[in-house]
UniProtKB/TrEMBL annotation:
PROSITE patterns: KINESIN_MOTOR_2. The lineage of its organism: Eukaryota, Sar, Alveolata, Dinophyceae, Suessiales. GO terms for biological process: microtubule-based movement. The gene is KIF1A. This is Kinesin-like protein KIF1A. Residues 7-346 form the Kinesin motor domain.
Amino acid sequence: MDKTDEAVFVGVRLRPFLGYESRQQCLTASGKLISVVGEFPDKKKKDFAFDCAMDSTDASKPDYVSQEKCYEMIGRRMVQHSISGYHTCLFCYGQTGSGKTFSFMGKKSELEQGLLPRLLRDLFGEVESLRSLGGQVQCRAQMLEVYNEKVRDLLEDKEKAKAPEIHVHPKVGVYVDGATDVQIETLEQLQKLLETGLSRASVAATMRNATSSRGHTLFRLLMEKHEAHTVVSSEVFCVDLAGRENEKTTKVTGENFVELTFINRSLMWLAQCIQGLGRQARQRGNSDEVDGSSRARFRNSKLTLLLSNALAGNSKTCLLGTLSPAAVNLDESYVTLNFASTVKSIKVTAKRVAKVDKDSLIQSLNEELRSLKDQLNSATPRNAQDLDSQAGFIRNMMESYKARWEEAQKNADLLRRQKDDALQNLAISRWRFARATVKNELRDEARADAAIEQLHLQGTPPSQGTQSNGASPVSPESFEVHFDPHEPSEHRLPETGASQVESMRYQQSLSTNSAEMGAWLSHWRTPAASDSPMWPPIPSLVIYSKDPSFSGRLIFHAEEEGRRYVLGCSSRCDFQLPQTPGICPETCLIWQESGRLFLKPLGIILLPSAAIEVNGTRLVRAEAKELLHQDFVVLGQSFRFFVFTKPDPTVQALLFSGRAEEGANDESTNAAIRGIIAERACSPLEMERARRYLRALEEDMVSSTSSKDEFLKRAMQARNMIEDAKVFSKALRPHDGLSYELLTLSPVLSLHELGTPSLCIRVLKNANLAPTEVALWSFSTFQSRLNLMKNAYNRTFRPATPATDDPWREMTAFWPVGAAGYENHNAQLQHPVAINPPIPVPVYRTQLPAATTLSPQWRTPIQPFQIGFQAVPSTVSYRIPSTPAPSCTSSPRTAARSVRNLEQAASASPSTRYREI
Ligand SMILES: Nc1ncnc2c1ncn2[C@@H]1O[C@H](COP(=O)(O)OP(=O)(O)OP(=O)(O)O)[C@@H](O)[C@H]1O
């Protein structure tokens, strides 16, 4: 138990002059010193040192201590003490009219609020934050007045109030029986309570103070921190003492004179207690034992009994002495200074409050009650009354504790339920937020690059099995797992096409080690439409991914009650996760107990990348954490799950709505697709690919819908033009078997984020049934060549038509000039696109989806819908983000050269990041 021997913290404050006082100042405050100034021969001691001396005499002085500053100097320390688990006490002492109530309570305006309202505000702020962290803190307030040596409950009407009684219990300490104990939930409630209590305090006008307190006001805030079976209670005790009065100066009579005698007597007892403690402190040095006689003195009055814990017990105590600066009040002020000096010499041993076992305290009180009852049975009538009242007090105390703790229990349950609800909402809002940000995240280049790097580090180096042109023979199919809506759902694998690490890794694993992947997949289950709506049937973790096609596809069912399932990337795990950053061989345990789901991290999680998060809070210890319905769990850096402990159509709908929306897709896009692939049998798979391709276009390559539409229109136009070109070619060069394919050429090397891909036309010669590429035309070249073909065609059949240029002029170098109808203008070759001899597939060329390297994410090679757009199966493009990009490929030859340079750079420097598609 922490124990600190500390002198009482003493601060003194000089108030401003009041109307009745002449302006002769006899006291000054400077630093920690109060000095008596002027000629006062009977006042031998001139300087009094305290912990702080506050000058509030004149607001225009630079060192003027305002209400706020006063709180900073003396009050704020109490907040931390009580939150750290110490009892604390603040009391104000001084002659009547010296400013105790002003310092203690202040005025209503925020600027002039006194110590208590400020202290409660800050304290409650701390309590609220403890509660928000899941702590069960119960606050109870009492407000009492010791008036004419009677304890009054200020939280009850004067008429109704039954006088509370003070008891001292060896286990509980000073206990006020019969006082209203109000449970406080909010600061506003507390402030209202304070106002009500103050309005009931006894106040009267005297010659020295128009609002003189006629009794001592005590405010007690009890804070109980509840755990399952224990409670830690610390109290904040604030006392505004009534002021010492001189009957000659206050000129009170009658009832007020009676009050004066009680006030002065109780203050005398207090002074005696303080002197006794001061003497003891001087004699015994640092001993924290309070001797019997000092203890006994506290029983002399109600006030001292109530303050006994603060002065001689276990508390961190502060005293604020208030003084008038005027010479007319010097005698009274001198008493206050001496009193405060003695208090300063007292050492109070503050121990951090220990946890009390609720059950054992109740049990011991029960036993005490039983023994009192036994004594009562055998008691003489003389002491029977005493025993009876003692038994009554024990009974009350026990019942009060029981009720309080039951209430705390109820409260804890309520809070837990509210927290659960909040977490559910949080999970849903997180889910919504996650969905809303998918698009943005997809554009997060940094992540993608990290992922790409990861892929590269773990994946197949591009040099493996390269073709003659240096291109890797990675076929799109090798990465791709297609989603076929007609496939039975249990065979359906997560779709690719996402930038997320998990799906990348997943795909990579599929391509590199499908056997292993198959192994881990076999442990997982995928939901089927038929699962709805009572899904999932047992507590489950459902994967969430920013890739809607991956989200919800993997489900972990904690099927067997009590069985501890190990999740990790090791093959020994019950549920094997792909090896991604942050996934340890054995990451965590998950098990089900009576329908409740628990997760326990395995080992100490030191690496931030290996963190396990539940609803955004990182688990720092290897201890079991209950997973509640709709919690959001993150394993490592890449796996995110929603927790379902019961069937949940709402969230299930949320999980799957993404796909429904996807399926719905924009009708105009569907129509456009149908327009392009019109005559071809449109299988659902093709449709799906086309749709995804267009989405990729829309999201990543085409800056707006209008340019997407434009692109589609041009594609359709090009397709018709190709048909024309085929007809003209067949007529003009029947033996060459020329054919044309529509391709897209993306500015891969330009590294532009957005842009519309160019359409281009591949010219193939069908020599010996093996098509060879003989040229690649841009769309505009194709347009002009088509015109030339048209002219040549016309001239063939209508000789009057003027001669035209050779539409296939770049090919004439190795072709004999063919049929008439066009001139061979070899000399006019202007187009650098000429490739002679034809090279195998030029590396700059990509099939369209691969060209989506423009976007930061790793978009899976979605097969371009092969109907309108012919894919070149093994093309490779490179991207080196950290290397200055060559400008857009105006010339394929330049592009090819650039790519070769880049390839060389990549292989020469292993640290160069590059990307293989
Ligand atoms: N620091 C201060 N700044 C401005 N006014 C003050 C200050 N301290 C006290 N006063 C004024 O002095 C008067 C007396 O103060 P207060 O009622 O607080 O005295 P008190 O010590 O509580 O007296 P009592 O013991 O009779 O209740 C009030 O009018 C109060 O507004």
